[in-house]
Amino acid sequence: MENQNESVNNSVKSQEEGRGTLILVFGILSLFFIGPFLGIPAWIMGHKDSKKIKLGSISSSAKTPTQIGMILGIVGTFVSLFLWIVFISGVFIGLSTFNEAAKKANRDGLIADATSISSISQVYYRTSKEDNRGSNSFIGFEIPERLKKTSNGTFSIEDVTDTSISIIGIGKEVGNDSKKQVSVRIIVKPESIEPNIINSPYAKRKKGIKFLVTKIRGMR
Known about the structure:
Layout: H1 2-14, H2 20-55, H3 63-126, H4 145-148, E1 153-160, E2 165-174, E3 181-189, E4 192-197, H5 206-219
Antiparallel strand pairs: 1-2, 2-3, 3-4
């Protein structure tokens, strides 16, 4: 009888205490945005200790905290990963939206500045010959120094004839080819101003350009 009691006592003494409390703490903390850093260890330790509990090498008293901690670790890991993915996606979407807005603003600014230059060239076209300018010709027109370089970009004359002048504006934002800056070409005639986006911040802007041309013509 004494030998049997001694054998039971030795068996109890040989059992490990387990890491149930530690696993439970890691599992709980993994739910608070520390997910994979504590959730994965809780998952792994919980799985190993659960096997030892079944084999009897760890006391059954550690079973409950071990299993709860392991489950929380699994949940915390996947929940945190999901939240990280959502957060990172949100950052990229926000940056993309900001960049697109900047490109659109630069494009609109270029068109506005180029339109101002175009209007000045039309005034030059109509100026009397006695003033040594124009006389129904665009030849000889030069962009005013203050408008050659603005906050929206730089402007230059591409081509000029008696009846038309082509003005190029190069912006500061990168266009839809991700290489060259947003740029606009405006063909100015005595009675019209026609903008054309060379490297638009958007793939398709033809409808918007036609609307702008109609609007400019309607204002004249």
